[in-house]
């Protein structure tokens, strides 16, 4: 059933602006959601996905854009949160004309929203979008961009995992720990590399057999299991959800043996209250938008003239940020997910008071 207009206003009530973008000539159907510009222009990737309905796409873009506001705030960036989704199968629907039409819609927002890569889009796609739009980051290295943002996304998750290990076991070392990675696409593959290099025992799964084969070829010691259900039921020290959101369900919490959850997926908690169930079971959750901010840091750095070394140094700070979240959680007596929200909201409130809604002419 389609959402009524009143429902649309209710679920998007936190957002500054939601734009529906259509271009019949190219088949473009997209939604751009700007959650907050209190800290600066909104930055967030464009997801290209075959949603079952416009309602599903809307819910996803609203949740993702809100997460980007919190991610940028917690990472200490002077950026707000936004996200976009293009509805369709990128394998068949993606084309240069469609991407350029989408770029014109982003351009029409005058710099209130900067786009970048996400699921289903790549740096070469950003180059096409940039032919019509000035507000694009995550471009190819050939065009002066940061390239694949999954590199520092994985690096940041690895740093967050080290921080969680420090709190849980008294040392950041993951040597000898068993880490289960669900989803070994762009980010998951890089994360496996970091884990193997430090001597962790890695178990992986993915619905994409080609992605699994790439990992198996690169890291022969990695063990592969047939499903996420099999993975979460395995003996693990750390569970790393690196596919789509909603991975941490009540059922997963019940069977999970891991003491730490730390992964790259966005919106990992399936519903409010899961964070409390995790705490009751003694499972330490590293909030997703805290640890997966490395990609945002990477593409944000591009706006200053990209330096990988500078961006990596900033992403290394995710270790300290994650420790700070766990410290606040302990002192306030709340789950880490709530502590992370409090830190992000505090920065948006305190700095946002000085800036208000971001407008292009104000910059």
Automatic annotation (TrEMBL):
Residues 147-356 form the Glutamate/phenylalanine/leucine/valine/L-tryptophan dehydrogenase C-terminal domain. The keyword Oxidoreductase applies. It comes from the Bacteria. Gene3D superfamilies: Leucine Dehydrogenase, chain A, domain 1, NAD(P)-binding Rossmann-like Domain. The keyword NAD applies. CDD domains: NAD_bind_Leu_Phe_Val_DH. InterPro entries: Aminoacid_DH-like_N_sf (IPR046346), Glu/Leu/Phe/Val/Trp_DH (IPR006095), Glu/Leu/Phe/Val/Trp_DH_C (IPR006096), Glu/Leu/Phe/Val/Trp_DH_dimer (IPR006097), Glu/Leu/Phe/Val_DH_AS (IPR033524), Glu/Phe/Leu/Val/Trp_DH_bac/arc (IPR016211), NAD(P)-bd_dom_sf (IPR036291). Pfam families: ELFV_dehydrog (PF00208), ELFV_dehydrog_N (PF02812). Keywords: NAD, Oxidoreductase. Belongs to the Glu/Leu/Phe/Val dehydrogenases family. This is Leu/Phe/Val dehydrogenase. It comes from Nocardioides caricicola.
């Amino acid at each position: 059933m389609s959402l009524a207009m009143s429902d649309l206003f209710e679920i998007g009530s936190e957002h500054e602006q939601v734009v529906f973008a259509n271009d019949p000539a190219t088949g473009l159907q997209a939604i751009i959601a700007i959650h907050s510009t209190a800290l600066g222009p909104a930055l967030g990737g464009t997801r290209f996905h075959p949603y079952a309905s416009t309602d599903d796409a809307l819910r996803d873009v609203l949740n993702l854009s809100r997460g980007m506001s919190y991610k940028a705030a917690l990472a200490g960036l002077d950026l707000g949160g936004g996200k976009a989704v293009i509805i369709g199968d990128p394998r068949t629907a993606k084309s240069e004309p469609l991407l350029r039409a989408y770029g014109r819609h982003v351009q029409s927002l005058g710099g209130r929203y900067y786009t970048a890569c996400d699921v289903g889009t790549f740096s070469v796609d950003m180059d096409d979008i940039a032919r019509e739009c000035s507000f694009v980051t995550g471009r190819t290295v050939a065009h002066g961009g940061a390239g694949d943002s999954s590199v520092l996304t994985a690096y940041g998750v690895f740093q967050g995992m080290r921080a969680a290990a420090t709190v849980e076991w008294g040392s950041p070392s993951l040597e000898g720990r068993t880490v289960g990675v669900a989803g070994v696409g762009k980010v998951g593959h890089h994360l496996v590399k970091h884990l193997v290099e430090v001597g962790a025992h890695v178990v992986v799964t993915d619905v994409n057999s080609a992605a699994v084969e790439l990992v198996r070829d690169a890291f022969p010691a990695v063990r592969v299991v047939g499903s996420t259900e099999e993975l979460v039921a395995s003996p693990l020290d750390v569970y790393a959800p690196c596919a789509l959101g909603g991975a941490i369900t009540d059922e997963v919490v019940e069977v999970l043996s891991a003491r730490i959850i730390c992964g790259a997926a966005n919106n990992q908690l399936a519903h409010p209250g899961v964070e409390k169930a995790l705490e009751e079971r003694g499972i330490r959750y590293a909030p997703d938008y805290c640890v997966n901010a490395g990609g945002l840091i990477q593409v944000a750095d591009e706006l200053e003239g990209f330096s990988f070394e500078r961006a990596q140094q900033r992403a290394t700070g995710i270790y300290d940020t994650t420790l700070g979240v766990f410290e606040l959680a302990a002192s306030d007596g709340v789950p880490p997910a709530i502590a992370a929200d409090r830190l992000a909201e505090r920065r948006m409130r305190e700095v946002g008071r000085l800036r208000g809604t971001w407008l292009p002419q104000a910059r």
